[in-house]
């Protein structure tokens, strides 16, 4: 090692040097403890295996109970076995999970924010008692079906329809890019009805429900996305989420998931940066570590500038959420910026690793691929741009 160079094996020291603004001091001891607990879990349970899971294109469903014991499934919800953690605490957990892999953080988001969040906010007491404790423990897995083959960014145009048949409901239609459904026990299905958009809890073994896994994929390979077909799927009246009417139901869950992405993208970006930094300190060319060359240092500096800005952005949004002052525009700004910058960081980090950067043992190329999906789901760049545009001008450019 060159005299004066930082030790690439001293990750704590590298992180301290990278926290130029002292942002770590802005989180509370309890928030820091949760972050460190989730970080240790990722180091022990995800990092040793993630390259293999990604390469084989499998999601490790056996992680669900372990994530339940970790307390990150529905962790911001109250009661029913959930922790009722603060928004910043959850954000830090999401960051550490996505530092492991976007697919793992996505599982926690689909399970906790989308499926459990919908049941907790809009479900009957019987529905909550039936599903939430088991889902919080990772003993039951939930899915969330909103997007359709012809209705992605425009959910108001969904064609899946539920009609009354006596006291039952019959659902017909299709949903696409639905996370977890092939391993789930229940799907929160959003459908048009004569009363507007309503939500239903549909067990995955219900006759007429066909679930096909989508693939092969070049992104989010350690995750599972599906296509759902509803052929006269009959559910009882008790399947209806009584509190949800209109698009406010699914949108409330989507905003929770988008908030997690604001933090999660930083995890993928930070992990990419750290992989590049440690490699640059170890790799010698022309008689010195490549970290000592000006072009490499510029790349590392540019990454840290965006990581620090993104962390401040996420923290401000999280504090607003904890204070009850969060707005959709804040979340859109955070998702748009942090994912966009995370992709740039992951790609730049790969260049520092050179040819070694295409191997899955090194994380930046996997993060870069995953982030292309993260950039698309829960609102594309275009959608969040128009949300912010409407906020700034008062004019709706969607229609």
Q: Unreliable runs, pLDDT <50, ≥5 residues?
A: none
Order of helices and strands: HHHHEEHHHEEEEEEEHEEHHHH
Nearest-integer average pLDDT: 96
User: What is CATH's topology name of the largest domain?
Assistant: Butyryl-CoA Dehydrogenase, subunit A, domain 3
DSSP summary: helix tally: 12
Total number of strands: 11
CATH class of the largest domain: Mainly Alpha
Instruction: Characterize the main sheet.
Output: 4 strands, antiparallel
Taking all Cα atoms into account, the compactness measure Rg is: 22 Å
Q: What is the CATH architecture descriptor of the largest domain?
A: Up-down Bundle
Measured distance between first and last alpha carbons: 59 Å
Structural class: alpha+beta
Number of separate domains: 3
Protein name: glutaryl-CoA dehydrogenase (ETF)
EC number: 1.3.8.6
Keywords: FAD, Flavoprotein, Oxidoreductase, Transit peptide
Cofactor: FAD
